[in-house]
Amino acid sequence: MMIGAMPALAQVAPLPGGTSAEPAATADTVTDPFSGEVQGADDADAATTDGEIVVTGFRGSLDRALNIKRNEAGAVDTILAEDMADFPDLNLAESIQRLPGVTIERDGGQGRTISVRGLGADFTRVRINGLEAQAAAGGNRSRGFDFSIFASELFNSITVRKTQSAEIEEGSLGATVDLQTGRALDFGAGIHGAVAGQASYNDLSEKTLPRLAGLLSWANDDETFGALVSVAYSERRPTSESFNTTRWQSGNPAQAYGAGNNFAGCVTCTTAEQRSEVLSAFYPRIPRYTIGSFSEDRLGLTGSLQWKPTEDTEIILDGLYSRFNQEAESPNIEAISFSRAAGGVRETVLREYEIDREKNTLSYGVFDNVDVRSENGFSRDESRFLQVSLNARHAFTDRFRGFLKLGSSHSKLRTPLSVSYMFDALNVDGFTYDFRGNDRLPQISYGFDVTDGRNFTLTEWRRSTGGADYRLKTAAGRLEYDLTDDLTIKAGAEYRTYGFDTFGFQQAVSALTGADRATDVTNLGKIETIAGGLDIPAGTDLNYIVPDIFAINDVLTRYNDPLIPAFNGTREVQEEDTGAFAQVDFDTLVGGLTVRGNVGLRYAHTQTTSSGFLGADGGVAEPEYVDVDNGYSNWLPSFNLAVEPAEDLVVRLGAAKVISRPSLGDLTPGGTLSIPTRRVTYGNPLLAPFQATNYDASVEWYFAPEALLAAAVFYKKVDSFINTADPEMVPWRSLGLPDSLLAGTPASPDEDFEVIRRVNGEGGTLKGIELQYQQPFTFLPGVLNNTGFIGNVTFIDSDVNYGASGRNRLTGQSNLIYNATLYYEDDRFSARASAAYRDDYLVSFPGGNGNSEEGVNATLNIDASISYEVTDGVRLSVEAINLTDEYSDRYVDATNRVSNYRHFGREFLIGARASF
After folding, report:
1. Minimal CA–CA distance to 68: which of 38, 94, 97?
2. Residue limits of the TonB-dependent receptor plug domain (predicted)?
3. Least buried of 211, 420, 503, 882, by fewest C-beta within 10 Å?
């Protein structure tokens, strides 16, 4: 029950059952690639002839979306407002995941970023009201768009463009996503509005919180001018419980006990074979059960002024503001010896053990001389997004038109406070872990009373603050001329600037001394309990003392000491993108067949200045702030063709050269420089973009009213993927770094340096098949004719050369994804049940600490909703999200060792909406 459905207010009320005997006549409905605006959708809603009835509501929006897909030249999928209204989604990402080939990455119990056809957030461009935008939350420092800061209620339509045309700005290897907010003339003359409220309950945190939304629009009687405002506000207090290990690592039998990552000894190892087996087996680096509590509030506002003095002229001014705040506290207790060599694992003695030979892991162990740490951290993240945009069009003649768009956006991310404290108990005997009964939820016992503050000492602390800013500005124009009724010539240009900067400050010293180093922490701690849905084995320590953040803040003598710059967290990228295109659109009959499409060429020039701190020794006392310039140009041809060999059949072909610019974090020249060893470790400000050639083909059969059966194949040949190169000897002069860094040192700019950096590595391929089926079951008897189905499945395969690490699939790519929704809708009652499945995928390759890879196992999320219209304009609803309480299961190594096994519980929402 989302306010995003308000455009449906202008629709004709459906008959009982929400069906019509015959499909209504509809106007062409397409989305403008230049502005991202859905064109003709409202005309389609209102189109009727005598004796014909328009299908409205949820089914009506599905039908309009099919009309858009059918009339496009390229591969496009669209969600319209009623769809978003009826899916039980917490935010925008979860609405988008319903589309074919789209899946999401979840964090904090909700969707944050999207992946399209196996390509993740960094390869996907997002535009809001026609302008490229960047939204950031949490620790995001990439080009990936964070959808979690926006509520679905703020948007009128979502369009995902999977093929490229010259008129669409470059920057995507996967897809361009257009988000459009509502406009007043969508609703017609007069005053229209709606208000909605929901109560949201999480069964793990056991808290109930509000979700509120409202919309008000006005247009004059002539429908030449209108204004609209909308607002959405929500709160969440999710709780997480998990078991995690960070990673697993092993020792080395070629080394002595107490060397490298080897234990100090093994009491029960009596033979050389046993010793070798133990030191070769992997053990968890930080085995622990964790709790996380979160507090979120999200506020979104939109405003629009729309002036349409004639059919030939239209000017739209849009504004969008979003605020997303999150506070998080993470109290944990863990054995930290295994993650530290000196003073840690090298002093730990293995007393008893058992080895899982299939996974080569120490599945059970009893240990002496173990360091146990209880820690607690608190952070507050504040995200702000503001965009103002102007879209204008004017028809100078019946054949000649012009379009203009101007705008800017600012995404501001701040972490005003991040603080954590550590209690330590050193050299504890009898620590035990046991994975033999459950490799995701082991039994853990610390060997002493972990609730007694007298057993711990306050030893360390961390405090930091930081932030990031993303600033985008766009000026673009396009001219169109209809050379004939079947042929249109388009040409345009744009200029965009992209500014990114990030900063950080941290405490100078982490170790606590003197009066701050409390040896009895009873009054500085609080007792935490893991008592939720985790099926933790008996014998596990479920209660433990952790630092009380705010109690310690009040007594720590150095809490208000000045923070010092975190040089590795301070960097900047300034980018200027200049582009121009020429394109020919055609829509004609060839041999009695409808043929439409476009062919075009885009030119793009990119100029960057990347900055960061490069710390040096051998003559430079302080890190130096370094600026490096880079530039590159690309010619990008594209072609899209849609042929209708039969009345209800569409065959599509598409091909394009595309680019995606490097991740912002990879462009930093910041890092370290060692003059004595002639060694440099940094990002790489001279990176070239990802480049690929995309091929697409599809067949779409609109075999019945409101129905579709479609199949699409795609193939992407990527010239190079950016990865970290092995150390190599490189001339200093080729690095782009200033010679001033070597001034006063023995080093010369003519020398070779050993360099570790990000490079444009080997390429790879990505290919897949999408299948899509959608149909209302109007042919079924009785009430069953009010049911229907929407579903899609995507199979993806990739092959990437990771250089010395070998070949594997692309990180972030699942081999199988599917979405399915079964719905029922009559004149009063509607119900939905939706499933979203994502197969396992890689997070990194190779993995750390000797693991072959790191990834996330498959997930299946089930959501449902029901609603009932009690009177005209008033509807009650109940929704359920994550009905099965699906766990996020992150793993390391191909043997599937547990890394983080986490859940956030189910959410239930009950609410009402009234419209007028």
Report:
1. 38
2. 69-175
3. 503
Q: What angle do CA 803, 804, 808 make, to 5 degrees?
A: 60
- Indicate the domain borders of the chain: 3-242+292-332+377-418+465-506+565-915
The encoded tokens of residue 172 equal: 């995507």
CA distances for 221 relative to 39, 191, 224, 226, 336, angstroms: 21, 10, 8, 10, 71
Pairing of β 400-428 and β 457-482: antiparallel
Q: What is the mean pLDDT of residues 425-447?
A: 95
Residues 6+ apart with CB under 8 A from 239: 202, 204, 205, 291, 292, 293, 294, 532, 904, 905
In angstroms, how far is CA 567 from the centroid of its own chain? Answer: 27
Q: What pLDDT is stored for residue 255 in this prediction?
A: 95
Q: Could you tell me what percent of the chain has a pLDDT over 70?
A: 92
Instruction: Give pLDDT tens digits for 742-758.
Output: 877 888 888 888 888 88
Residue 28 has pLDDT above 60, yes or no: no
The pLDDT of residue 26:
39
Cβ contact 147:116 at 8 Å: no
Give the burial class of 248: count Cβ atoms within 10 A of its Cβ; 0-12 exposed, 13-18 middle, 19 or more buried: buried
Residue of 69, 225, 94 lying closest to 153 (CA atoms): 94
pLDDT of the residue at 338: 93
The CA-atom distances, in angstroms, between 190 and each of 155, 183, 186, 441 are 21, 13, 11, 60
Query: What is the separation, in whole angstroms, between the first and last Cα of the chain?
Result: 16
Report the distance separating Cα 902 and Cα 301, nearest Å.
33
DSSP percent split of the chain into helix, strand, coil, nearest 5 = 10, 55, 35
Per the CB < 8 A criterion, the answer to whether 545 and 527 are in contact is: yes
pLDDT digits (tens, 9 = 90+) for 542-585: 899 999 999 999 999 999 999 988 887 788 999 999 999 999 99
Distance CA 174, CA 96 (A): 14
- Cα torsion for 662, 404, 3, 174, to the nearest 10°? -30
Give the H/E segment covering residue 250: strand 248-250
Average pLDDT over residues 650-666: 93
- Closest residue by Cα to residue 233 from 256, 208, 214, 259: 214
| SS3 sequence of 77-146 | EEEEHHHHHHCCCCCHHHHHCCCCCEEEEEECCEEEEEEECCECHHHEEEEECCEECCCCCCCCCCCCCC
Confidence of residue 113 (pLDDT cuts 50, 70, 90): confident
* 656 contacts: CB under 8 Å, gap ≥ 6: 163, 164, 165, 636, 637, 638, 639, 693, 694
Q: How far is CA 609 from the centre of its chain?
A: 26
- The CATH architecture that domain 3-242+292-332+377-418+465-506+565-915 belongs to is Beta Barrel (2.40)
- Distance, in Å, from the CA atom of 20 to the CA atom of 28, rounded to the nearest integer, reads 20
Return the residue matching tokens 């609703």: 187
b/e sequence 123-139, b meaning 16+ C-beta within 10 Å = bbbbbbbbbbbbbbbbe
CB 170 within 8 A of CB 602: yes
- In this structure, what token pair is assigned to residue 28? 């062409």
Tell me whether the omega of the peptide bond preceding residue 284 falls within 30 degrees of 0, making it cis: no
